Amino acid sequence: MRTEPLRVALAQINPIVGDIGGNAKKIRESIDRGRDEGAQLVVLPELAITGYPPEDLLLKTHFVDAAGAALEEIARDTEDIVALVGFPERRDDVYNAAAVLADGRVQAVYRKMFLPNYGVFDENRYFQSGAGPALIELNGVAIGVTVCEDIWEPGPPATSEALSGAQVIVNLSASPYHAGKPLEREQMLVQRARDNLVSVVFCNLFGGQDELVFDGQSVVIDPTGDIVARAPQFEEAFITCTIDPGRSSAMRLRDARHRAAVRRYRERGGDTCPILARVTVESDGEPVEGPVAEPLAPESEVYAALVTGVRDYVNKNGFKRVVFGLSGGIDSALVALLAVDALGPDRVTTVVMPSPYSSGETQEDARTIARNLGTQLIEFDIEPLMKTYDAVLEDVFENEEPDLTEENLQARMRGNLVMALSNKFGWLVLTTGNKSELSVGYATLYGDMAGGFAALKDVYKGWVYRLVEWRNEQEGSDLVPRSVAERPPSAELRYEQRDEDSLPPYPILDAILLGYIEGDLNADQLVRQGLPAEDVERVIGLVDRSEYKRRQAPPGIRISQRAFGRDRRLPITNRFRDTVRAATAAS
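Structure (tokenized):
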């Protein structure tokens, strides 16, 4: 095995699912840049050619064949550099694969072994798993190839590749974001590097794809677990650094633990991993230090994920402008901040739609937010519409007391107005409801739920307040007036209405929802955590009865591990009920 330094480049690109030509162009540009910067190896993300996840596009043979043809075209331009590119390979079946491109052709293909089929993943639907681990040799350096989930597994293929002599393990990834995952993922990669005494080269996808967001944060880690290079989060990036494969070899000579592991591996019948390709690329020999971007803090990380999700959904689907109702409440205020930061004020229209129940303070706050952010502002007074609806329904509703019906009609009038703007001008309607409200059905079908994209669908109410406060702090001024956060939350659909008239206080509500939705805790477990039994039982009932509403909600950005739609899938028709046992309630 050789011990000369190896210069590697990581291309953290933002592909568009299905845009094979556009993605191929990005890949070519990345390979060219790597060559220009003297890299011997350039690594691109999982399924870089098709974008991730392509879902049922993979069931179309002509789609998979088009990806393969694009790969062949890219390979022809691969001279004086080796590129690892993710693509779907069609042979006897379809594989999630990494192609080794060098000397103008596809030299070899590694096939992903572990196909995730949990949470947002559904890869068993589309792919056959690869037969086993494998190596390539670049200038005599043994490099193990893995794809995403392969390295999350604590054993093979990474351990088999290391025990077969790999000095470097490369991972092509499309690792979706949820809050806290970048740190969790990097800690796992550090552990893999230490356990296997290898350098780990991890290249992740960046960008928004429907509900999913990919954060990037590609990283290179040495055999001691130190970070050699780290790309920034939530932006396209290209980083180059030099790694020292000889360090793995030297550490293994001194590490009897690893020597014993190799012996046990051979005794158990473990075969040496096949070497798929041997390639040589000249180097200028000068070591290059890679950049080490600082990870984001929790609020900035979540906010950046939401901005990325909004921007890419709007841009990748060809919308020129977004529109939404701006009520003067905290939720629509956060959506306004996200939309302007994602698209710029010139592409954002806010709509103020007062009724007789709207307070002057909230309406003035809404106008202030629009002025502060520089958005277009449209105002519709819905009182005439309310009178028209009352007149039309007067005979049918005779002798009936006003109730939620009249409240919901106001929300639906507003939904109709913003949808009219969408239809007339081709703007995308953003909904403004948060996860706390959507969980318990505190939202109106065809009203405030009417729209094309739900920016806060996976954001609990407590996080809404945190993010608005954080954004004001970043600005150094109150883009959102303090009165918006200080005012008791209200839908303002009747006089003196407060959210807490219908729901527990939001801190209690969010605590129940976090336990029940994110943790799958039952009612008794929640009560034992100190949450009020009456509130627990009521909230669980509301969550269970509202599944039919959530099925009709627009897609929204996933920032948790239990997002509605992708992660949490429950039947609408469902008679199972979780109640608090009497003994628990009495305690």
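The radius of gyration is 27 Å. The domain at 7-279 is CATH 3.60.110.10 (Nitrilase/N-carbamoyl-D-aminoacid amidohydrolase).
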